[in-house]
Design goal:
- The chain is an alpha/beta fold.
- The chain has a domain of 207 residues: P-loop containing nucleotide triphosphate hydrolases (Rossmann fold), CATH 3.40.50.300.
- 36% of the residues lie in helices and 16% in strands.
- The protein has nine helices and nine strands.
- Strand 1 and strand 2 form a beta hairpin.
- It is globular, with a radius of gyration of 20 Å.
């Protein structure tokens, strides 16, 4: 079980290739998943809590310390795997973009349109993250991009091991890998996948207060997309407040207003992607990676 969020069971993770030209299903590296390192919330240093020197102390006295140590181990192992992913992607000239949002923000619709309109000029592959089903991967396949579905089971986010399995299945060489993370504004912020850029997608139907309510995910963003702006005449959403609060949390992340259905602002989104893909292809240093920013957990 994951100490950071309570999700668990690495054996429930499935990486599914919906293209039909390679084996249809493969399990993630269970031995490397952040859920399955042999840690169960108890110390494994050979010292129990009931032996000499522990009289008068309950297990609860140590639970907080053990949980913190477990979280540090989990994140450290994930970050090491993420570093390998980043090196692998950089060597191939592939720009990896981690798309994070709550459910219903319009990520998949945005991806469909991006694949159709940008994919003609730049190779695009997609990794879809959901707890169950291949619904989103089927939509991306129909849009024309190579795609792998990662079903996390009880898990509420992707991790570096899951991404590595998906990348090995897709085998991209150049272009852009777009990663649709599991819909969740909390746990995906904690886990580096080895991506070069993070994009947080918000829709105007969700409320303008989200940057202050969920600051960690907005603080980790390279770019923020405000989606469904075509609905602004029909919803109570304060764009100025949203942009102001997002700037308080993360002054370095630009906000681009878009409509994935109507096309508003998508030229700026495509330009942003293309510029970074060009830098990655040339091997330029991307200064907005986690290690350079020194993002705090």
């Amino acid at each position: 079980m994951c100490a950071t969020c309570g999700c668990g069971d690495p054996m429930g993770v499935r990486v599914i290739d919906v293209r039909g030209d390679v084996p249809a299903e493969a399990h993630s590296h269970a031995g490397h998943s952040h859920h399955g390192h042999g840690y169960d919330g108890h110390s494994h240093d050979g010292h129990g809590h009931d032996g000499p020197g522990h009289e008068g102390h309950s297990h609860d006295d140590h639970a907080g310390t053990e949980t913190l140590l477990l979280e540090e181990r989990v994140l450290a192992k994930n970050d090491a795997l993420a570093g390998h992913n980043r090196d692998w992607l950089r060597a191939r000239g592939v720009l990896a973009v981690n798309l994070m949002s709550s459910p219903g923000s319009g990520k998949t619709t945005l991806l469909e349109r991006t694949v159709r309109e940008l994919g003609a000029a730049t190779p695009v592959c997609v990794i879809e993250g959901d707890q169950e089903t291949t619904f989103d991967a089927d939509r991306i396949k129909a849009a024309g991009a190579p795609v792998v579905q990662v079903n996390t089971g009880a898990g509420c986010h992707l991790d570096a091991s899951m991404l590595r399995t998906a990348l090995e299945t897709l085998d991209p060489r150049g272009g852009i890998a777009l990663i649709e993370n599991v819909g969740n504004l909390v746990c995906p912020a904690l886990f580096d996948l080895g991506e070069d850029c993070r994009v947080v997608i918000m829709s105007v139907t969700e409320g303008a207060d989200k940057p202050l309510k969920y600051p960690h995910i907005f603080a980790s963003a390279t770019l923020i997309l405000l989606n469904k702006v075509d609905l602004l005449p029909y919803v109570d959403f304060d764009v100025a407040r949203f942009e102001h609060d997002a700037g308080l949390v993360n002054p370095n992340a630009a906000v681009i207003a878009v409509s994935a259905t109507q096309g508003d602002g998508l030229d700026r989104w495509y330009g942003w992607l293309s510029e970074r893909a060009g830098r990655q292809r040339r091997g330029d240093q991307l200064a907005d990676r986690r290690g350079v920013l020194g993002l705090q957990r």
